[in-house]
Structures
1.
Amino acid sequence: MAEEKKNWIESTRDYWGEIRNEMRKVSWPSRRQVEGTTLVVIFSVFAFAGYFFVVDSALTRVIKGVLTYFGK
């Protein structure tokens, strides 16, 4: 039991050490890059929202028209 606990502690310590080493290898984006990509994402979200609003409105009108036509 004591050996299992020791192995668990060692494996956890090794795991965190590996994480630390990998994080040192990461190339982090600059603030300017983050701001630029954030603006692209925000613009894209609003563009898709507008697109889906238009498509949804058009489909709603078509379906209501079909149901009204055949509902008589």
2.
Amino acid sequence: MKTNWFSRFGWIYLPVSVPGYILCALAVIFCLTVFAAVDRNSHSASDTLYGIFPFWACTFLLLDWIGRRTCGDCRD
């Protein structure tokens, strides 16, 4: 049985069920928390970007992987 949490829309995956929305909300909350923590100690915009990049990249790659695995209308 395949669960349909996300639907493919171009290159991105949009949530179509409650677990998908919860996962996206958690990812956004995590990214905002990381941004606030890194920006508090940054001296420039590049400091902030260098600080958030590893966390945001890993978060969105994980979200993309989960979206690909739980996509209902994707070709396998």
